[in-house]
Specification:
Layout lengths: L1 H39 L3 H34 L2 H8 L7 H10 L5 H13 L4 H13 L2 H11 L1 H28 L10
Length: 191
């Protein structure tokens, strides 16, 4: 009886997954149809939407494969003990420095930082280290900071980065405290 209920639940999940996949394909086909109609009728907004999609898709094709290869190498080569030592429960407050330094070298923004944060989590990093990393990867990217400094000046960039850092750390600590108080655990990935 229990086995039948479990199989029934798995069947429902599979059906739901298929239904979602169909819906996603229909949305994409609708987007393609609207784009084609816009192109044929010279509707400027639709044409710009398609052009923006192509730019975004090209960026994804160029950034994601090498990034995921590097994340895979990180996952395979970075030892759990090293991650726990520098980012985990027994780490010192220096973990925030490591998190920011790792974030500064992450190219690809949140497309890359979230999968890498997941790898950090599964290797034993504390929530505060992960939150600091994810937030800092949006704010402290080296290419963005160089461009910002060239346009707005080094003083502005330094003030922005230094003023952001304490807030990132404080918010990360508060979020970690909240997540731990609610016994939150990240869900396992489905196979």
């Amino acid at each position: 009886m229990e086995k039948d209920m479990k199989n029934n639940g798995m069947e429902k999940k599979k059906m739901e997954k298929k239904r979602k996949a169909k819906r996603d394909y229909l949305i994409f086909l609708g987007f393609l149809a609207i784009s084609l109609i816009s192109k044929l009728s010279s509707f400027d907004l639709g044409i710009r939407m398609w052009d923006n999609f192509l730019i975004f898709a090209k960026d994804m094709v160029l950034i994601l494969p090498p990034s995921f290869a590097l994340i895979g190498l990180f996952d395979a080569w970075a030892k759990r003990e090293s991650i726990e030592k520098h980012f985990g429960k027994t780490s010192s407050p220096l973990r925030f420095v490591w998190s920011v330094l790792l974030a500064m070298t992450t190219v690809g923004g949140t497309f890359v930082s979230f999968p890498l944060a997941n790898a950090l989590y599964h290797k034993g990093a504390k929530y505060s280290s992960i939150m600091t990393y994810v937030t800092a990867s949006s704010l402290f990217m080296i290419p963005m900071s160089i461009m910002e400094a060239s346009m707005l000046g080094i003083k502005f960039t330094a003030i922005r980065l230094l003023a952001s850092l304490p807030f990132i750390i404080i918010i990360s600590l508060l979020l970690e405290k909240h997540l731990e108080s609610t016994n939150y655990v990240l869900p396992l990935m489905e196979k």
